[in-house]
Design brief:
By secondary structure, the protein is an alpha+beta fold. The protein has two domains: 143 residues, 2-Layer Sandwich (Fructose-1,6-Bisphosphatase, Chain A, domain 1); 109 residues, D-Maltodextrin-Binding Protein, domain 2 (3-Layer(aba) Sandwich). The protein is built from seven helices and 15 strands. An eight-stranded mixed beta sheet has the order 4-3-5-6-7-8-9-10, sandwiched between helices. The protein has a five-stranded mixed beta sheet with strand order 12-11-13-15-14, with helices on both faces. A two-stranded antiparallel ribbon has the order 1-2. A hairpin with a 2-residue loop joins strand 6 and strand 7. Helix 1 packs antiparallel against helix 2, helix 4 crosses helix 7 and helix 5 packs parallel to helix 6.
């Protein structure tokens, strides 16, 4: 399917504005007393008024400017509408635990899809003042400067990121898979924000990333950005963790990383 340049430009502009506006409010709340703290899926899966306020800002802008689009957002679920064929996937605060503990690794993630898949991706890091963005078929950008990944082929020298879920059983299985991956790479990182992990793959700060149990809103924006930078993104089938996953890598490393991640599942119970 051909990308409509006018539509893509309109959506990208809206996504960037929404992410930066929400990011300003989050930054104003960062390292201040937490308000409205509640739990979601488990006692370690947290949400606060910061998440809700950021989401409200983003959804209000989208609904005002594109009322016929559908929205799938982490905190409020799927909104009514959707006659345009456009779906927004919003994580207003990816890295909530980091945010609540004052750990400066969190972001606003806004992706947009059409019938052909990922159309636009924006990941905004308010702490560093960095906005990663991309439109399908165009070059990925970091604060307006192009991101173009160089190929690498030696997985043993690659810096790889991963993450863990909130359920104790899933976390144990994820840790066991990681123990099978780490001997084959340079080192592992666990930043705590899937959106930033993928954006950093696009920027070459990481060579690859994989994680099982992520949601669509966690990775939709990052996937568009990684692909636009020349990298690759794969969907991972359901494994011992009980959920599908996502893998992203710079060119030349995806197949090797996938093979190691797959092999590391052996014996996990």
């Amino acid at each position: 399917m051909t990308t409509d340049p006018q539509l893509a430009s309109e959506v990208l502009n809206l996504a960037v504005r929404a992410a930066r506006t929400a990011g300003e409010r989050l930054l104003a709340r960062f390292e201040r007393p937490v308000e409205g703290l509640t739990v979601k899926s488990t006692s370690t899966d947290l949400v606060s008024d910061a998440d809700r306020e950021a989401e409200g800002i983003i959804l209000s802008l989208i609904r005002t400017e594109r009322p016929d689009d559908a929205i799938l957002s982490e905190e409020s679920g799927e909104a009514e509408g959707g006659s345009s064929g456009i779906l927004w996937l919003v994580d207003p605060l990816d890295g909530t635990t980091n945010f609540l503990w004052g750990y400066p690794q969190w972001a606003v993630s806004i992706g947009c899809q059409d019938a052909a898949g990922g159309l636009v991706g924006v990941v905004h890091d308010p702490i560093r003042g960095e906005t990663f963005s991309a439109v399908r078929g165009e070059t990925a950008l970091l604060n307006g400067e192009p991101l173009v990944l160089e190929p690498r082929h030696d997985l043993s020298t690659a810096l790889i990121a991963s993450g863990f879920g909130y359920d104790a059983v899933r976390r144990r299985r994820q840790a066991r898979r990681l123990s099978g991956v780490i001997p084959h790479v340079r080192d592992m990182r666990r930043g705590g924000s899937a959106a930033l992990d993928m954006a950093w793959v696009a920027a070459g700060r990481l060579d690859g990333y994989y994680e099982f149990g992520v949601n669509a809103w966690d990775v939709a924006a990052g996937a568009v950005i990684v692909i636009a930078a020349g990298g690759e993104v794969q969907q991972l089938p359901v494994g011992p963790e009980g959920a599908p996953g996502t893998l992203a890598a710079r060119p030349g490393l995806g197949q090797a990383l996938r093979a190691v991640v797959d092999a590391a599942a052996d014996g996990i119970t």
